[in-house]
UniProtKB/TrEMBL annotation:
Name of the molecule in the record: GhrA protein
Keyword Oxidoreductase applies: yes
Organism in which the protein naturally occurs: Weissella cibaria
Any one GO molecular-function label of the UniProt entry: NAD binding
Keywords, in A-Z order: NAD, Oxidoreductase
EC number: 1.1.1.79
Classification lineage: Bacteria, Bacillati, Bacillota, Bacilli, Lactobacillales
Cited InterPro entries: D-isomer_DH_NAD-bd (IPR006140), NAD(P)-bd_dom_sf (IPR036291)
Length: 315
């Protein structure tokens, strides 16, 4: 009997052919019927509207959800756990463009481009830095954090990581536990936030945390907007204890036109677009090959092994 897959995230025609050859029938949010709801086994992407219907059906056959994003804070994790539904994310899919964006943020400020882009007459600005002069700590040592560290090391940087346990990770000069930030060097200049959005990371970067980290040259967030207390960040930017900041994620999104974040001259805002790359248009342009790494295991009733989310921890 054919298995049913709900195509929320766009599949290419050749992808559908591959699935068809594996006896998987594809339905879309536009073609799904009431009778299909209980029969859907795999959700490729997630529709809140249809997902609620699936999870409300006691006879639902849903067993696996593949998200188009690395973060899964928007997913009904508790319900999925109750129903023993497996969840895989897109971690690592956009590590390269995101990491390159982070490097561009650092160089934008370090090489004085933020000053020169607004000048309309000749005025030398030489308060510039090289990567080796800006010791950096990355909060989050997963795929994205490791890629950022790789680029920084290639440019001569000194790079530290922060994760839950402080376990060593290749590519970092040292890694400390998230509850042992006092073990970080005193000369940290740049903080990169790649934390996931969980209950434990809400407002993690607040006035108290900024005070612990000391004066910073640059604060960057490419993780989740929920991890930063934006009012405290603005206070630090205005006081000069954080000299500059770059945010790709905010709370809320889209950011309203009247948000005070837009008014901070030492803050660079991008609109959750660090994932973008021309050769693979869209947030999930190259998701299917990642999905296919797990599909054979699923069809063989074996555990999934790639990008499996711990539904309790949320990442």
């Amino acid at each position: 009997m054919s298995r049913l897959l709900l195509e929320v995230t766009k599949l290419q025609p050749q992808d559908i052919v591959v699935l068809h050859d594996l006896d998987i029938t594809v339905v879309t949010p536009d073609t799904v019927t009431a009778a299909d709801i209980s029969e859907i086994e795999i959700s490729y992407g997630w529709s809140t509207e249809i997902g609620k219907k699936i999870l409300a059906d006691p006879t639902s056959k849903l067993r696996w959800v593949q998200t188009m994003s690395a973060g899964v804070d928007y997913m009904p994790l508790a319900e999925l756990a109750d129903r023993q539904v497996m969840l895989t994310n897109a971690s690592g899919l956009k590590s390269v463009p995101i990491a390159q964006s982070v490097i561009s943020y650092i160089l934008h400020f370090a090489r004085g481009l933020n000053v020169y882009q607004t000048q309309t007459h000749w005025q030398e600005f030489t308060d510039q830095y090289t990567i080796s002069e800006l010791p950096t700590v990355i909060f989050g040592t997963g795929n994205i954090g490791r890629q950022i560290a790789h680029y920084l090391k290639a440019l001569g940087g000194r790079v530290y990581g922060v994760n839950t346990s402080g376990h060593p990770v290749d590519g970092f000069d040292d890694v400390v536990a998230i509850d042992n930030l006092g073990a970080l060097p005193d000369d940290i200049a740049v903080v990169v936030d790649v934390l996931p959005g969980t209950d434990t990371t809400v407002n993690f970067f607040n006035a108290e945390r900024f005070a612990t980290l000391g004066d910073l040259y640059l604060f960057i967030n490419v993780g989740r907007g929920t991890t930063v207390n934006q009012a405290d960040l603005i206070t630090s930017l205005q006081a000069g204890t954080i000299r500059q900041a770059a945010l790709d994620v905010t709370l809320p999104e889209p950011l309203p036109d009247d948000s005070p974040l837009w008014q901070q001259p030492n803050l660079l805002l991008t609109q959750h677009t660090t994932w973008a790359e021309n050769s693979s248009a869209g947030r999930a342009g190259n998701l299917f090959p990642l999905f296919m790494k797990n599909l054979p295991s699923y069809l063989a009733n074996q555990p999934l092994s790639v990008n499996v989310v711990d539904l309790t921890r949320g990442y």
